[in-house]
Each structure stands twice: as structure tokens, then as C-alpha cells.
Amino acid sequence: MTSVAVLTSAGSGTRLGLDVPKGLVDLSGQPLVVRAARGLARAACLAGIVITVPAAELETFRSRFPGGLVPGTDLPVRVVAGGSTRQASVAAGLAALDDDVDVVLVHDAARCLAPPDLIAAVEQTVRSGRRAVVPALPVTDTIKRAGDPGDDGAAPVHETVQRTALRAVQTPQGFDRNLLDSAHRAGGHLAADERSAVSDDAGLVEALGEQVWLVPGDERALKITTRRDLALAEILLREEPELA
Ligand SMILES: Nc1ccn([C@@H]2O[C@H](COP(=O)(O)OP(=O)(O)OP(=O)(O)O)[C@@H](O)[C@H]2O)c(=O)n1
Ligand SMILES: C[C@](O)(CO)[C@H](O)COP(=O)(O)O
Q1: Which of 17, 131, 211, 242 sits a CA distance of 20 to 30 A from 228?
Q2: How many A from CA of 87 to the centre of ligand 1?
Q3: Domains and CATH numbers, the chain
Q4: Cis-peptide into 172, omega within 30 deg
Q5: Which atom of ligand 1 is nearest the CA belonging to 224?
Q6: Could you tell me the distance, in angstroms and rounded to a whole number, from the CA of residue 70 to the centre of ligand 2?
Q7: Ligand 1, atom 14, residue with closest C-alpha
Q8: What's the pTM value of the predicted model, to 2 decimals?
Q9: What distance in angstroms lies between residue 218's CA and the mean position of ligand 2's atoms?
Q10: Residue 86 alpha carbon, nearest atom of ligand 2
Q11: Measured in angstroms, how far is the CA atom of residue 67 from the centroid of ligand 2?
């Protein structure tokens, strides 16, 4: 029984607008990708991590993991080139897994403050027999379905969506390895183009007709997308230094 994480860090961080790939952006003294890897290590349920990074930055990212280990731990790390979309990057990570891996957690470096107990809970739920497990939080905003905006920028409302059953999903998402491999094989033709690629791995599993299960998410697993998210993550770290 071997659980491994595929940690996606091949995005450029366009919306963050800094001059380094998002995984290398500093958050209170550590790059996001190192923080995310340390969180995975602290969950103490993984035998290794495969990190997908921009192809042009392989050596820069590798230098952040001296000796091929998560800093301060003995958890091995393999850094591989990702693809042009998140889906393609996860597929590249899966292709690098050893044969003995039977459970895979797919995690975003952009969600680098996901607490170790959340990570361990996802892994444990897969181990207990749920083959596709996603952490999620209830949606708190009122949600409306909109049409195309007119010339003045105003968009017509088509409906107000009943929100009680809506959930915003996070990572790590945990899977039986064979199921995730099958889902990526079946959806592989979508991966190259951002317009067709799926935004999470559970979407590919759903497309196979397989059941996906939700477990409670955690606000600290926020996705750092904008400067405001980065500032919020800094505040979270000040409030809870043990997340560091
Ligand atoms: N081709 C890509 C695109 C994204 N990701 C990863 O998927 C996660 C979620 O992506 P997002 O937060 O949208 O990151 P970016 O694509 O870097 O952001 P942006 O769209 O602003 O460029 C991130 O950990 C990111 O590194 C990836 O591995 N490969
Ligand atoms: C996988 C994910 O983090 C779940 O919320 C999210 O879907 C990534 O999507 P993005 O479009 O790459 O931000």
C-alpha cells in the first residue's frame, strides 16, 4: 500500500503578476511549492511527492529540494515537467509514478496552507474504500446564472441558483490510482487546450460515470490566485504559525 502525491506547480501565476512562476513566489520566507510539499510531508501518510513544474524551470525548482527531499524531512521528491494546462500537468505527474503506487493525492501548490489533518483525512477516506474523494466547502454567496453582457457591461440574470447543495471544491483530491489513470486516459484528448481541459481531476472521474465523494474542506486550503489571496495567506500564517 503506497500513497503518493502529485503536486501541481507548473502554472505561471499570471493573475498574481509577479516575475517568477507562482510555485517560486515567496510566502513569509518560503516558496509556495516548498510550503505545499512540507504540508504534504507533515500529513505523514505519503511515500513520496511528484512535483510538476514549468519545463523551462526544472533545475530552479529542483534546487529548492536539496538531495531530492522535502526540506527538513526524509520524504523523497521527484520534479518533472508539467504541461500547458493543469490537466496535462497532472497527467505528466501520473506518468512518473512507480508501479507500486495505489493511492494518489492530487494537490495544488497554490493551496499551500492546506492543513496536514485535511490531507490525512482525504488519504484515509480513499484507503477506507471511497475511490475518489474531494474536500469541499459550502458556497456562502448567493449565486446567479448570467447571460452575455450588453455593450454597457450589464448582464441579464437568467436565474438564482439554489445554493444549499452547492460546494466549492479544494485540493488535495484523493483517488484510487487505477481509477485516476483510467479517467486521465479517457479524458486525455481534452488536456492540451485550456478551453477543453477540466479544472479538477474529479471532473474526469465523474465523466467516467464513477462516484465522487465529498468530505469537509478547510478555509485554510484557499487557492492563492491573486495578490489579495497572498496577503490573506500571510495573515493566516501570522495567526497560526504552526501552519508554517
Ligand atoms: N499548466 C498548468 C497550469 C496550472 N498548474 C497548477 O494548477 C494549480 C492551480 O492553477 P492556478 O492557481 O490557476 O495557477 P496558475 O495557472 O499559475 O495561475 P494563472 O491562471 O493566474 O496563471 C496551480 O498549483 C498551478 O501551478 C499546473 O500545474 N500546470
Ligand atoms: C483543482 C482546483 O484547485 C479545485 O478548486 C481548481 O479547480 C483549479 O482550477 P484552476 O482553474 O486551475 O484555478
Answers
A1: 242
A2: 10
A3: 3-239 (3.90.550.10)
A4: yes
A5: 12
A6: 24
A7: 11
A8: 0.97
A9: 15
A10: 12
A11: 30
Whether complex ipTM tops 0.95: yes
Which pLDDT tens digits describe the chain residue by residue (244 residues)? 899 999 999 999 999 999 999 999 999 999 999 999 999 999 999 999 999 999 999 999 999 999 999 999 999 999 999 999 999 999 999 999 999 999 999 999 999 999 999 999 999 999 999 999 999 999 999 999 999 999 999 999 999 999 999 999 999 999 999 999 999 999 999 999 999 999 999 999 999 999 999 999 999 999 999 999 999 999 999 998 777 7
Q: What is the number of the ligand 1 atom nearest to the C-alpha of 83?
A: 1
Inter-residue contact 69 to 85 (CB < 8 Å)? no
Residues 52, 92: contact at Cβ < 8 Å?
yes
Name the residue type at position 181.
Answer: D
Q: Is the CB of 200 under 6 A from ligand 2?
A: yes
According to DSSP, the residues that pair with 167 across neighbouring strands are 138
